[in-house]
Amino acid sequence: MDATALLVGNYLHSYFESPAAHEAFIEEHKDEIKSSRKPYKLLKPYQQAEMMIKTLDEDETFQQFYQGDKEVIVTGKIEGVPWKGKIDCLNLDNNYFIDLKTTRDLHMKYWDTDEHKYVPFVTKYNYQLQMAVYRELIKQTFGIECTPYIVGVTKQDPPDKAVLSIPDEQLDWALDDVKAGQQHILDVRHGKAEPTRCEQCDYCRSTKTLGDIISIEDLVD
Ligand SMILES: [Zn+2]
């Protein structure tokens, strides 16, 4: 995710956290989000963020749904490894939590090279794994099992929006993935193991050396 996309996401999140949080965010980032010339208008990506905010803010279902504690820090351990998360909106009275996600298009298809099929943006960015970890940390922190929902809002004009649920078995698989994969990540962090190369990301491209010759049939998964 590029820096602007991250800032746009934070801009939107701070709005739905509280008026004070949003004001503080704008003040802290005014050089990045506003034009340097009079009348100091919001730059294009943040005008778009305003549209995204408006479409949720004016939706009655969203207003009723996005109720609870905002930006709640939860901690816990998954098989002995410490984890920490921040819940956008936690409603312990009704056993659910919500994560706000900004995305290009709710219906965009991404090719999954492992599964050899198209997957939605939630799967592409492994958000179901994030939701599975949050659900576990909430359970450990408060002793309550909550259902995760993603409220997706798009950068289209006009923006699209939807409340998304994740099938239980996908959350269970995701938590199994965490348990199976976290030891290797810790080993890489502690210099005890080499990272697994994907040959697709910024890191892999920047550290690539020419080796094998690749058949054109293997270029695309
Ligand atoms: Zn890589």
Automatic annotation (TrEMBL):
Tell me if ATP-binding is a UniProt keyword of this record. yes
Gene3D superfamilies attached here? 3.90.320.10
Where is each Putative exodeoxyribonuclease 8 PDDEXK-like domain found?
A: 2-207
Q: What superkingdom heads the lineage?
A: Bacteria
Under the heading Pfam families, the entry gives:
DUF3799 (PF12684)
Q: Which GO terms describe its molecular function?
A: ATP binding; helicase activity
Enumerate the UniProt keywords alphabetically. ATP-binding, Helicase, Hydrolase, Nucleotide-binding
Q: What is this protein called?
A: Putative exodeoxyribonuclease 8 PDDEXK-like domain-containing protein
Biological source species: Secundilactobacillus collinoides DSM 20515 = JCM 1123
The lineage, from the top, is:
Bacteria, Bacillati, Bacillota, Bacilli, Lactobacillales
